[in-house]
Amino acid sequence: MASLFTQEIHLSKRHEEILSQRLMLLQKMKNKFGDENTERASLLQATETASRRNL
């Protein structure tokens, strides 16, 4: 019985580690996509400005 309890504790700790790693990965992805969207918006604005200038 103690062995099952020990396994449960180990699995619970591992589960918390995995959730923590997942949260960090999701945050990195959010930051990366946010940076890409900001860059994309900046390029779009520059393109629109250049188009107006060329008219």
UniProtKB/TrEMBL annotation:
It holds the Pfam family CEP15-like. Residues 44-55 have a biased composition (Polar residues). It comes from the Eukaryota. Residues 36-55 are annotated as: Disordered. This is Centrosomal protein 15.
